[in-house]
Amino acid sequence: MKLPSVTDRLARNRFVLDEAESHIHINQELAALTNIADALIACCPAQVYSKAEDGTILVEYAACLECGTCTTIADDAVLSWHYPRGGFGIQFREG
Ligand code: SF4
Fold first, then answer.
1. Which residue's CA is the closest to the ligand 1 atom numbered 2?
2. Quick check: 78 and 31 in contact, CB under 8 A?
3. What pTM does this model have?
4. Ligand 1 centroid vs 2 CA: distance in angstroms?
5. Buried (b) or exposed (e) across 20-51, using 16+ Cβ within 10 A?
6. Among residues 38, 93, 94, 89, which one has the least CA distance to residue 68?
7. Which atom of ligand 1 is nearest to the CA of 46?
8. Band of the pLDDT at 86, cuts 50, 70, 90?
9. Which end of the chain has a smaller Cβ tally under 10 Å, C or N?
């Protein structure tokens, strides 16, 4: 039996988007003083982070898998991350 790929498994997840509030916030001024943008882009398996031409970190929070990886590499002063409000965020269909 062939196991499904990671991409296929991720495609089975469902997201309930909180359009009123992002659960991820970046202090852009502090982030600009560090190399944290490249680290966030490299670490996130969902490609939530990207960088605008002016260096601003862009956050596509709707795709967040809530894995917590980014919270382990960024200082709390730069990255504010909390779980989405109840009922919002990723809904895992398979463990
Ligand atoms: S919690 Fe995981 S998926 Fe969400 S933004 Fe951080 S690294 Fe990406």
1. 67
2. yes
3. 0.88
4. 28
5. eebbbebbeeebeeeebbeebbeebebebbee
6. 89
7. 3
8. very high
9. N
Considering only the top CATH level, what class is 17-84?
Answer: alpha beta
36 Cα–ligand 1 center, Å: 14
Q: Which residue has the higher pLDDT, 57 or 2?
A: 57
Residue 91 phi, psi (nearest 5): -120, 100
Q: Between these two residues, 1 and 18, which has the higher pLDDT value?
A: 18
Residue with tokens 């504010």: 80
Query: Does ligand 1 lie within 6 Å of residue 31's CB atom?
Result: no
| Ligand 1 neighbourhood includes 91 CB (under 6 angstroms) | no
How confident is the model at residue 94, as a pLDDT?
65
